[in-house]
Design goal:
It is built from 14 helices and eight strands. By secondary structure, the protein is an alpha/beta fold. A hairpin with a 5-residue loop joins strand 5 (204-214) and strand 6. It is globular.
Length: 363
């Protein structure tokens, strides 16, 4: 018998949002780990709102704000407006963020302004560090063997915004045949973005993202964004490796780093050795002599590092496709850096969720 096409809505419901989320849903374990990290950030959140303690309307809870930002990365949502729209009717999103079915969803501009407070106080970086602390507690990090690499990130600015710094442009937007460089020109839309090309790619206004990953499971242990230039990768690598050396439990432990041929430079190899980091860098012998000592290149660990370093590309691929960071939709070095770090934190949570499924912790 054919059923009737009717719709009857109950006046009351006795079900919770929790009941609508399947027990095996991936967001359950991700939310648990995210909440563990957010609990550790309570002191930072208190300091962020200390100036407003005397009065005023309550802002968006920073914990809910960060969970919403995570959703935007995990579900490739292109804008805050679309995120708020989907949160309005998506029960899964409401549950993950911490909104009840009756709670009013925030206005997109209010959400964006509150996000700026998190960026100002480096809350995203602190969240990234707390997620790493969870991985460390579960013994998913070696703390000794790393890989380093960089990737280009297209800025949210166009060629027509790239004009002379002295304001003497008279080309009316037609820049064909004209010589332009970062020394004489800058973008009016995003002054921090630099005109840069790598290999056979076209020159674009770009930033450069850098990560240091742990070789045990490919988790990203350090991430930052810099302006794009020919030395940025090696300079950022030295900063991240120095942090890794400082964070090492055993100050005398051997630390290794795998990298591609772009890091085969004398000054970088010497800097690594000075930090007591063994540079397992791919040798560049194309018309030149490699700066990597043959004794290191012939060691058994060198081949392992060269194989493991390819794991770092998975993070770049994920954050550019799923995280929608192939071209950022924010402007300014600090904002781009925070969004890149947030993307890598989300990537780590996804990998950690998988590791938890494959390697359950014994109790």
């Amino acid at each position: 018998m054919r059923g009737a096409d009717t719709f009857t809505e109950s006046l009351f419901t006795m079900r919770r949002l929790e009941d609508f989320v399947p027990e095996s849903h991936p967001l359950r374990s991700i939310r648990t780990m995210a909440n563990q990290a957010l609990v550790k950030m309570d002191r930072l959140f208190a300091q962020m709102y200390e100036a407003d303690i005397k009065g005023g309307r309550p802002s968006i809870a920073p914990e809910k704000l960060l969970r919403a930002m995570l959703l935007q990365v995990l579900y490739s949502i292109r804008s805050e407006r679309q995120l708020m729209e989907q949160t309005q009717y998506n029960l899964l999103f409401r549950w993950f963020i911490g909104l009840s079915m009756d709670d009013t969803v925030w206005v997109p501009t209010v959400f964006t302004k509150n996000r700026e407070r998190l960026i100002k106080h480096d809350a995203v970086i602190e969240f990234f560090n707390e997620v790493l602390a969870i991985a460390q507690k579960k013994d998913w990090l070696s703390g000794e063997h790393f890989s380093v690499d960089g990737t280009l990130i297209q800025a949210w600015a166009g060629h027509k915004s790239f004009v002379r710094k002295d304001g003497s442009d008279d080309d009316s937007g037609d820049f064909r045949g004209r010589k332009r460089s970062n020394e004489t020109h800058e973008s009016k839309t995003d002054p921090d973005a630099k005109l840069y090309r790598k290999g056979k790619t076209a020159s674009e206004l770009r930033y450069m993202g850098h990560t240091l990953s742990d070789n045990r499971h490919g988790l990203v242990v350090s991430a930052l964004v810099s302006t794009a230039d020919g030395h940025a990768e090696r300079e950022a690598a030295k900063v991240m490796l120095n942090d890794a050396r400082q964070a090492a439990v055993d100050p005398d432990a051997e630390i290794t780093v795998g990298a591609d041929k772009g890091y085969d430079a004398q000054e970088f190899i010497e800097a690594c050795l000075e930090m007591k980091v063994t540079p397992h860098v791919a040798q560049n012998t194309s018309g030149r002599r490699s700066a990597v000592p043959d004794a290191i290149a012939c060691s058994p660990g060198y081949a392992v590092s060269q194989q493991k370093r390819k794991l770092i590309e998975q993070g770049f691929g994920w954050v550019k496709t799923v995280g929608r960071l192939r071209q950022v939709m924010v402007r300014g070095l600090k904002r781009v850096d925070q969004m890149f770090v947030l993307g890598m934190a989300a990537y780590n949570l996804v990998r950690m969720r998988s590791l938890g499924q494959i390697r359950p912790q014994l109790r």
